Queue: 3 jobs
Job 1
Amino acid sequence: MSFERSGILLSPKAVLHQPGELGYIPVADRPLDFDLETPFAFIYDGNQDRILYIKGGDRVIYPASTTKLLTILTALKVLSLHEIVHPGDELTLMDEDSSVAGVDERHALTVEMLIEAMLLPSGNDAAYVLAAAAGERISEGVVSGRDAVPLFIAFMHEYGRSIGLADTHFTCPDGLDFEPHYTTLEDMILIGKAAMQCPVIRRYAAMPHDCVTYQSGHTNSWINTNPLLRPDSPWYRPAVTGLKTGYLRHNSCILLSVETNDTYYLVGLFGAEDSDMRCADAIKIVDKLTGGEVAL
């Protein structure tokens, strides 16, 4: 594969779903028309199960922290929400430039708290701790957190194939990786669909902020990284109910759930130069979807 150092993909072609295959979603007969600056984008109608708009769908993309949705979905295949987890040496795998939730080896948290920590402040520390806990369960033995994370990543690929992912290769649980860590717009729709069917993701992905007390008694305050969810933000849109932001250098991403008139949409924007470009394109789409301008 060939990549620009800026984080924007040069030429890798995506493996696309074909009619009749697991994960295939048809494109609407009359797709919507948008003038977006973000190079990779989609709009998915969850009620009709069809793609209303797609831009750059034939290329692979960097998902950044939207990766955490698949990490959560995979971990919940082997862990229950109320299990208590003790962070360990898996935290040493985390990149020094990571966004963090304030999780370290002094703490004890439930799986549910780790999920909240991943969805609000986008904690890479929480992502590694959750991945290690699930990896240890998968191993059916006593392994270190560092050794458990690769086991989890292999299991995440198996789970991804089970929901129809066609061209997704994840190398870490937090998304803070470049060339080997990629997916496609079609696969991100499938991840978003699965996330919308997960009550704990829907609950915490919709929270603008929260104060938490760990099982160990430590307290923390978290703010959601999604500005469209926060009433104090100029980008706020009340129809937005989640899901996840992502950021790599010159690659700002967002996967939104939008609910209006008994319809839910997924909106994905990937590869924006910065957060303002990502948000400006997002509200352009959300305002059209919620303003009665979409006639299908």
Job 2
Amino acid sequence: MADFIRIVLSVLVPPVGVFFKVGFGGQFWLNLLLTLFFYIPGLVHAIWVIAKTPDQAVA
């Protein structure tokens, strides 16, 4: 369910969905750059990151 919410956020603002998945890492900055140049590549990258990255275990 959390990934669904992240994908919905990514449709509106792709870097937000990536941030909630991986934080301020390289994937976030790449997505921000893609989104600033063109919206669609940023959106595709955000959905790919959200779908392929496993959730971090909460201790």
Job 3
Amino acid sequence: MQEEKIKDVKTVVLIPALDPERGPLLDLVSKLLSYDFLFVLLVDDGSSKENKIIFEECKSLGCELVSYEENRGKGYALRRGFSEILSKKEFYGEADVITADSDGQHTVEDILKVRAEMLAHRGAFVLGVRDFFSEESNKNVPPKSLKGNRFTSKLFKFMYGRWMADTQTGLRGIPYSLLDEATKIKGDRYQYEMKALIKAVRCDVEIIETPIEVIYVDNNKGTHFRPIRDSLKIIGVLISQFLKYSLISLSSSILDIAAFTMLSAMLANVIPTEHIIVSTFIARGISGAFNFLMNKRVVFSAGNTALLPGIIKYIITAVLIASLSALLVNGLFSLLHWNKTIIKIIVDTLLFFLSYKLQQGWVFNRHPRQTRKQ
């Protein structure tokens, strides 16, 4: 009875496509449509006129089609597909969505595997992931793709504290409950998928990874991915949180200096002996409060977490970093006899990264779910 109930659950396979190869796309669509529990929605992302016939052939097989003239990018095509599904609830119902690529990288078997995980874990964000860290991947994956995927996985882990085996997979299972949020994520091209992954981590969505086959047709020649431009955009998205953290830290330092200057001038005649010490502590309190609140809300998106525990952890972290700085600068100066200012710059730069990781993983950590591998 349970298996019959699961089979009745509808799922939309959303396929964005730009000038696709006829054979792989027709083959994928026809196989998917053989399952009566699957809708297939094809989004023509501004393909050339000579390739429009391919989409019409797919439509004649029974899939739904959204088409527009100007190429807008994969991210736009995905959002357009999500909006189409939401706007036609009477047709699609509250169907979950699986996004798949049109170039032959995703098999029907793997699409069904993602669907099975979605049905087993309702509300979870399911990723069909390729293994880029095995010996087999060295043989099957183009070198540029292999290095790029390995790099983004490691960078994602550092920036967001979660390990993702395949940050750039296009095979993703998105529950109906998340579709509306998915339409609000910005980014028209390949950076959209990275932003969606970051959003899921920040919002503590359960993420499940299920292994899929690694397929690169003709050394991935059919891809529309622009290696330099799109890679830079994806890296820009990945490091955006750390850039915000750096900018807020700089702003906090400027605020600290400005507050100290103003307070010391005001208190010089009131408490001549103690005005420097008092001004230092008050200025540091003002800049620290600013830094804490901005990091909490803007950098780590932890606005809903309890305030007092965060403040206590933040103060402990600040004291720890300051103590380490003093000890390391003093110890390295005694050992190396370098210029003290140069030593402090090196030490504080390294501690800046440590402070980021402590704030990310402890101070503002909302105890996120672990990514589960199936």
